[in-house]
């Protein structure tokens, strides 16, 4: 028979467990302190880097994107506030605030054409035309960052992905799966027909017409009845390059 450990043995075992626990806590604290120290060093180096390359960050979109990646890795958000160190050093908060205002303007001016749904690529094209005089190029990455800040204001702006395209939505339109599939199908030539959707998606004509009518009512589609074969074409400005914004250079 095995002998049960006495009281002394149990006390030694408990003491050993306490020592291991304390050792583990000390190691964890040491690691946390080291990480905090490293993070503080990284942030200090990042600030020095920003001072040295201030003009490049403001003027060069590729450089600006790399700078944002560096910030993300050390938990710094230069856009978190329009005041403070980063805003004073780079004016980067003002850059994205101004860009956000211009995004709202473009979306409002094009809403009658696209129903409040515009491709990110087209939006950037309009913004570049507007900002030619400023000589501050903007990229899709810049637009995405500016839009993410607009969402905080509860402005209804958001970016959705349909097929291979990113679309910026500026109206509270709810698109269901059927609508998204039709928009994705339209990306090939900018339009669809009832027959085409039926054939490609294996839907009934009722389902197709119901979805297309909703998109028409929301202002996201335009109908062309002047086709020789008699088949109506449903055009979608948000995924078509046919429609252009006349006021983009104003």
How is this structure best summarized?
Component of the endosomal sorting complex required for transport II (ESCRT-II). With about 250 residues, this protein is mainly alpha-helical.
SSE order and pairing:
Blueprint: H1 7-52, H2 54-59, H3 61-73, H4 85-90, H5 92-114, E1 117-119, H6 120-130, H7 140-152, E2 158-162, E3 165-169, H8 177-186, E4 191-192, H9 194-201, H10 205-217, E5 222-224, E6 233-235
Antiparallel strand pairs: 1-3, 2-3, 4-6, 5-6
Residue share in β-strands: 5-15%
Q: Classify the fold: give the CATH topology of the largest domain.
A: Arc Repressor Mutant, subunit A
Sketch the major β-sheet: 3 strands, antiparallel
Q: What is the CATH homologous superfamily assignment of the largest domain?
A: Winged helix-like DNA-binding domain superfamily/Winged helix DNA-binding domain
Low-confidence stretches: 243-250
> What is the highest CATH level, the class of the largest domain?
Mainly Alpha
Helix content: 55-70%
Q: Given the helix and strand composition, which structural class is it?
A: mainly alpha
Task: Report the count of strand segments.
Answer: 6
Number of domains: 2
Number of H- or I-type helical stretches: 10
Subunit structure: Component of the endosomal sorting complex required for transport II (ESCRT-II).
Protein name: Vacuolar protein sorting-associated protein
Family: Belongs to the SNF8 family.
Organism: Brassica campestris (Field mustard)
